[in-house]
Amino acid sequence: MPITDLLERNHKLYGEETALVEINPEIREEQRVTWKEYELIQPTNTEYYRREITWAVFDEKANRVANMLISRGISKGQKCAILLMNCLEWLPVYFGILKSGALAVPLNFRFDAKEIDYCLKLADADVLFYGPEFIGRIEDISGHLKNNMLLYFVGDSCPSYAEDYYRQVSNCSSTVPRILIEDTDDGAIYYSSGTTGFPKAILLKHSALMQSARMEAIHHETTHEDNFLCIPPLYHTGAKMHWFGSLYTGSRAVILKGHSPEQIFRAVSHEGCTIVWLLVPWAQDILAALERGDLKIEDYKLSQWRLMHIDAQPVPPSLIRRWLHFFPHHKYDTNYGLSESTGPGCVHLGMENVRKVGAIGVPGYGWKVKIVDEKNTPVAQGDVGELCVKGPGVMVEYYNNPEATAEILENGWLHTGDMARQDEEGFIYLVDRKKDVIISGGENLYPVQIESFLAANTKIHDVAVIGLPDSRLGEIAAAIIQVKEGETLTEEEVNRFCLDLPRYKRPRKLIFADVIRNATGKIDKPKLRGIYCGERLVEKQYNS
């Protein structure tokens, strides 16, 4: 069945129960606004504001979005993009798009104007839902948007060139649209990137979305009584597909707009959260606050919190040992995946396998794995090769890119680009990555983009960007800069030059040295990594 059926089932079974809660710790009394069509609640003994909707309201709002799109001529197979910060509107918009028969196209809220324009064109999007945080970026590309593209503004003070989402959707029917949706229908396009840094559009079917929902509930033994705390951005397959476990079981979820240790503990305590997905930096921050005494477990109601799990980057085993010192009753899981495999879980550690922390785990529910050499031949157990996965969550293709699709898909097997080994018990360990993508704090950084930006500096002769291990973020971007002969360049000048880059893309370490290139003129990044972080240090980060 298509994933939209789960929402309609939850409406029938759990209609009056809370489905989603949004918490924004940053809203204070003097900043209070009137939230349209949602109930604003101030819980007892808290300072933050929250909004919530029931499963019935969630489904009805998704129906309104679907009927609005259908009334405007959007038909099955068309593409509707979403550019929103995490909010209570996000998921009803997403499911409204799916219910209309169109494909949902979530966009990274970190994209700059050019990246937004590129991704809209690549997906051939006809509709864009966007929030007030993105007005400037949309205005910058307004002259490049597709003719007659529908722009729905989700916020107050709608710009003149867009349509007021709240006003338009409120006039539409809340009944289920009569659109036949099947498992085999295309459901969504998510964005990833290759080593070149140019985003690729990943086409997923409804069956893949359903697989991820079922798998999440099975892996983490999610029940109707659970309460999932969702902190990472919903545009990402990680956050979305972990929440799908709540959708599958009809259980409550909390969207937290903040990730400080205190904000996380308060949300878990006041909302009764039982499952929390963290990125490594957030877990590190919590542990540091506990060890300093700035955060005290006894000040919060945390006994119901049963599972903490992590993915999106390698997890140092020492972190989990420290975590279990403070939370000995917690279950723990590591999840590995790609957007090309419909998010996390094609390989997972398993809550019962905490003794194997350091491994990414074993094949997930419904998945197969193999590790192959350069000739696509399975390697011997213990040897290093490329990790390949096969299962019901493998993407259909890179949309409009058959060449890139052929490079990564072969007879149903997805080549991940990650180098791995398998131990005698069948547990898989990541060893290195073939790709040059840097994963910093769970976000992908693409070296070519940063290199291209820095190369525009008139004092720079050559530049290479590599990832260096970092105990908190997993990796940081380091720029090796070769200054032009006769010129002088300081760290302060480079940092000032990089102010035009989004903050998360700015190099965190600058190294003034010659850039090494091989005989074909390509930057020799393996050699640079050997010089500046060392093979042993890299291996320790992934396998310690």
**What's the CATH superfamily of the largest domain, by name?**
ANL, N-terminal domain
Supply the number of helical segments: 16
Low-confidence stretches: 29-46, 535-544
Strand order in the sheet with the most strands: 2-3-1-12-11-13-14-15-16-17
Distance between the termini: 42 Å
- CATH topology assignment of the largest domain: Rossmann fold
Total number of strands: 28
Helix content: 25-40%
Q: What would you report as the Rg, rounded to the nearest angstrom?
A: 23 Å
Q: Major beta sheet, specifics?
A: 10 strands, mixed
Identify the notable features of this structure and list them briefly.
544 residues, Luciferase, domain 3, 16 helices, globular, 10-stranded mixed beta sheet, alpha/beta, 5-stranded parallel beta sheet, 28 strands, disordered C terminus, Rossmann fold, 3 domains, GMP Synthetase, Chain A, domain 3
Plain-language structure description:
- The protein is of the alpha/beta class.
- The strands form 6 sheets. It has a 10-stranded mixed sheet with strand order 2-3-1-12-11-13-14-15-16-17, with helices on both faces. The protein has a 5-stranded parallel sheet with strand order 5-4-6-7-8. Strands 18, 19, 21, 22 and 23 form a 5-stranded antiparallel sheet that branches.
- It contains 16 helices and 28 strands.
- Strand 22 and strand 23 (428-433) form a beta hairpin.
- The protein has 3 domains: 4-204, Rossmann fold (3-Layer(aba) Sandwich); 307-433, Luciferase, domain 3, CATH 2.30.38.10; 438-543, 2-Layer Sandwich (GMP Synthetase, Chain A, domain 3).
